[in-house]
Design goal:
Elements: E1 6-11, H1 21-38, E2 42-45, H2 59-69, E3 74-80, H3 86-99, E4 104-109, H4 116-122, H5 131-144, E5 150-154, E6 157-161, E7 172-177, H6 180-189, E8 193-195, H7 204-214, E9 226-234, H8 238-256, H9 267-270, H10 280-289, E10 291-293, H11 295-309, E11 313-318, H12 332-344
Parallel strand pairs: 1-2, 1-11, 2-3, 3-4, 4-7, 7-8, 8-9, 9-10, 9-11
Antiparallel strand pairs: 5-6
Length: about 350
Amino acid sequence: MSEKLTLSILDIGPIRSNQTATDCFNSMIELAKFGEKLGYHRYWLAEHHNVAAVAASHTAAFAPVIGAHTARIRIGGCVLLAHYPPLLVAEQMGLLEACYPGRVDLGIGRSTGADWATSSLLRGGTEMKSDEAMIGDLRNLLALNRPEGLTVSQDDREFTFRAAPNASSAPAPWILGTSWYSAQLAAELGLPYAFGYHIRAEGAKEAIALYRERFKPSAYLAEPKVLVSAIVVIGETDEEAERLARPQLFFMSSFRSGEPVQSQMLVEEADGKEFPSRHESLVQMFRRSWIIGSPDRAAEGVANLAADLGVSEMMINPVVSAYSSQPADRAPNREFTLAALAERFPQ
């Protein structure tokens, strides 16, 4: 691409079999600090619940920790609005923005990030929100972050609610998605759009094209703005990268199949282990969309994907694979992936 490629980080908080939760969170803090030194633009967290292989569950809880250990990189990430009242999200992320003004991104997702039982528990047993209710909550959330806040009339009185008192700035809202629905919603509201290629590669080009075609300028954004997230595995050689990809391939194929999952295997634990025949189609699908290879080969894959989708920002989701000899509270292979790409795409 002739345009400079901006690099960002997506961290789902993957936890290895040799890590405690504390080890995992320490490795995430170090990854964010390392990414900032390399010039990465954003460090986003994902939201998953009751998944044994994923430690990060609440962006609003862990993003402040990342903010305290960094100085420049944008922080925040995914908040799944299906589980929460808009005022709660607005207050949590507004407080974060007040602590780290001008650095916070609020990525709004529609999925649950959990199995049905966990999702129900998070909502206190209430019914799942309809699409119409979700859109209403989204509009209220956006209003709560404006300086004038959200005014509600009740019993002939007016009540005004704001995310944070005397706020000088607000989190930058993004719509997260992998479908035409999310693309159209982002376009209608005039918000930036983050396509989760790491979740679903199919339809990416069409969804992004739809977003650009139907985009309506807003107070948030004058022109369409898109980033794409992708899973990247880099080793010293193509062969090592394939080896590093295996633990996550085992996890993802079980997770997508709705089967029980454990903490992600170490590389040695995955060596020689055969993929179940029932997972073969999933493994092949992941291999088609993941970027796996040596530094030069992977960088070419990142550049080609960005060019194919017409985006100037790629959010890198580096896999957590590690060897038994590596420290539990760090993620050396993830850091290697970030360093290899930053060297080839100077920030």
